[in-house]
Amino acid sequence: MAKLWSGRTDGKINKDADDFNSSISFDSKMYKQDILGSIAHATMLSAQKIISKEDLNKIIDGLESILTDINNGALEIDLNAEDVHTFVEGELINRIGDAGKKLHTARSRNDQVALDLRMYLKDESKFIEKQLLTLIEVIYNKASQNIDAIMPGYTHLQRAQPISFSHHLLAYANMFKRDYERLIDAVKRMNFSPLGSCALAGTTYNTDRNMVASALGFDGITANSIDGVSDRDFCVELLSCFAIIMMHLSRFSEEIILWTSWEFKFMELSDDFTTGSSIMPQKKNSDMAELIRGKTGRVYGDLMGILTVLKGLPLAYNKDMQEDKESIFDGVETVKKCLTVFTPMLESAKVLKENMFKAAQKGFINATDLADYLTKKGMPFRSAYKTVGEIVAKCVSENKVLEDISLEEYKQISNLFEEDLYKEISLSTCVEKRISEGGTGPLSVKKQIEDLRTYVENEKNIY
Q1: What is residue 363's predicted lDDT score, i.e. its pLDDT?
Q2: pLDDT for 368-417, tens place per residue?
Q3: Beta strand 150-155 with 158-164: parallel, antiparallel or unpaired?
Q4: How far is CA 70 from the centre of its chain?
Q5: Who contacts 93 (Cβ-Cβ below 8 Å, separation ≥6)?
Q6: At the topology level of CATH, where does 110-146+160-193+215-352 sit?
Q7: 410-416 long-range contacts, Cβ below 8 Å, gap at least 24?
Q8: CA dist., res. 181 & res. 129, Å (int)
């Protein structure tokens, strides 16, 4: 296929150099956006009397037929073409003749690829936004089923205070809610059309950039033509969003890996999302969660890769910027695949409430509540803290828990202790009396669930 840039040279270069220069192996996935962008561009050219209505109709018919043929498999993208833009334009000329050669009037591949990339990433981001809403929905549904499940809350991976499993889950729901909003915010900044910037300086034709932008669903146009072709901030920002999503998925996956171990046994994954060992028949491995944890580093690498590519580039377009696509495409696909697996894995997981409760009974995670009990009876908190610490030391030496100490023993330590202390330090009471907004108490957790449910239902109406 002839090079779009042949003329100044014969368009022939060393085969290895040609393969090295080619991007169609990865930018071909933007064929739909390339065709739709070209239709909008041609429509504007006709409206501005730059091409005839007759040529416009031929171009639109030709482009639509190409899109249909690619979608139904009747036309395969030629991987010998330099890029997807070359392929589409070459195929159009083959189908409609000289009218197809007018399509590229008043545009460059520089602004064309910038347009295609923004359009493609808008579509993919919208898909990921929907995936995040689905995951949040799964989390709050899981939480609503487990409000009565008490588990140890951890700090420093040491048992700290009793919480509900629902409360723990909802922490992740809030993380993914921020991810969803962060992604929407990034797309808003990206949603400006660069088409019409041409190579870097604009065009001598009387084009209407805003007409094209409106037709393609953009909020406006890029204000500076040099920035329009050289800006890849949106790739960096989206990859940053993806890296944070992956970080949250990785943290959650790490907990699932711990919870499904025999040492914790708080949860059991469905067989659909585990694998076995080739030599140890007893194994049930959380491989999907482990892969998600591992693929997080891959997306971090995509982000660092594109930052490194861009850090020394002078304005305007440079061929280095072709390296943006494999990084951002990989980031998109990795996040999509991880969310596709993680969400049903969590939804189908079995929560082992009894094991959680037994773990919560150990580790003296109600010690703070015992200190609060004494404080409410009039003892200064620091004194109460020291007293309870001594009681815990006594329990450890005698292999007991706080509930095992008799009232008489408690009274020998302090006359402030009464029979009601046992109710105060029961795990269910410890959870229930955390009444502060956003805390682990049942009323707070139910409100968090309802707030998230309302939020997700409202957001779903947008799509």
Answers
A1: 81
A2: 999 999 999 999 999 999 999 999 999 999 998 898 999 999 999 999 99
A3: antiparallel
A4: 29
A5: 100, 101
A6: Fumarase C; Chain A, domain 2 (1.20.200)
A7: 413/387, 414/374, 414/379, 414/387, 416/374, 416/377, 416/378, 416/379
A8: 9
Residue ranges in the chain whose pLDDT is less than 50 = 5
Tokens for 351? Answer: 């929560």
Q: In whole angstroms, what is the distance from residue 160 CA to residue 147 CA?
A: 19
pLDDT at res. 5: 43
Residue type at 67? L
Which long-range contacts (C-beta less than 8 Å, at least 24 apart) are formed by 279-288? 284/260, 286/253, 286/256, 286/257, 286/260, 288/341, 288/342, 288/345
Cα 411 from Cα 243, distance rounded (Å): 55
Domain 359-460 matching CATH 1.10.40.30: the answer reads yes
CATH code given to domain 15-107 = 1.10.275.10
Catalytic residue numbers? 156, 277
Same CATH fold, 359-460 and 110-146+160-193+215-352? no
Measure Cα distances from 205 to 44, 46, 194, 196 in Å. 11, 12, 16, 10
Exposed/middle/buried for 280, CB within 10 Å: 0-12, 13-18, 19+? Answer: exposed
Q: What SS3 state is found at 48?
A: coil
Does 74 sit behind a cis peptide bond, omega within 30 degrees of 0 on the bond before it?
no
